Amino acid sequence: MTGDITILHVDDEAAYADLQKMYLEKIIEASLSTIITTDPTEVTEIIERSSVDCIVCDYDMPDIDGLDVLATVREEYPILPFILLTGKGNEKVASEAIRMGVTDYVQKPSGSKQYKMLGSRICNAVVRFRSSRRDRKEMRRFQNLLDRVADPLLTLDTDLCITYLNEGAEQFLDGSSESLLGAAVVDHLPKNLRSKQNYAELWMKKR
């Protein structure tokens, strides 16, 4: 279950957008709220003031097409679900949309079967989006906790290269995060800790 879902539908044909809203509200097993705009230039403004979970955007619109809208959205919202609709299959458009980070690419629905498919794609995209958003939030919270630790703290990959370090570790290794991330930790240890014996002990602890 996805809970409440808010869709932003971008289409220059308001009548079609209203029809799609009616079908999707019957198909999606959630409390569905649909915001409709016929002006593609309003998209980012609507996202800023509304809790949008997914954008469903027509490709073929005058002046600004769906790829233009996708490019604008991805500048500020890199993981927000964006489903592009087109009236007919176009591999060139599909390829470009995938390159630009589209979530899904669906032929414009014209029957109940296609609306069910679109509804399923929307729900799946929203579930993945919310899960990713939770993961990012937890990661930021965890990193904030680590950053508050006064003692040197760092993490290493299997090659003993630094993948994370806090301010205490920067001071201990006498470097900045920009210069230390990805570097072999042994190359930046204080000279008295760089002996082969100490390196071997570090390696055994890692193993």
How would you concisely characterize the structure shown here?
The protein is built from eight helices and seven strands; from the N terminus they run E-H-E-H-E-H-E-H-E-H-E-E-H-H-H. It is α/β, with parallel strands linked by helices. Strand 6 and strand 7 form a beta hairpin.
Query: What Rg is obtained from the alpha carbons, in whole angstroms?
Result: 24 Å
Order of adjacent strands in the largest pleated sheet: 2-1-3-4-5
Distance between the termini: 42 Å
Overall pLDDT level: 82
Sheet-strand content, in percent, reads: 15-25%
State the share of residues found in helices, binned by percent. 40-55%
Describe the sheet with the most strands: 5 strands, parallel
Protein architecture, described:
With 207 residues, the chain is of the alpha/beta class. It is elongated, with a radius of gyration of 24 Å. It is built from 8 helices and 7 strands; from the N terminus they run βαβαβαβαβαββααα. It starts with a strand and ends with a helix. The protein has helices spanning 14-27, 43-49, 66-76, 91-99, 112-147, 167-173, 177-180, 196-206, and strands spanning 5-10, 32-37, 54-58, 82-86, 104-107, 154-156, 162-165.
How does the SSE layout of this entry go?
Layout: E1 5-10, H1 14-27, E2 32-37, H2 43-49, E3 54-58, H3 66-76, E4 82-86, H4 91-99, E5 104-107, H5 112-147, E6 154-156, E7 162-165, H6 167-173, H7 177-180, H8 196-206
Parallel strand pairs: 1-2, 1-3, 3-4, 4-5
Antiparallel strand pairs: 6-7
Keywords:
alpha/beta, 207 residues
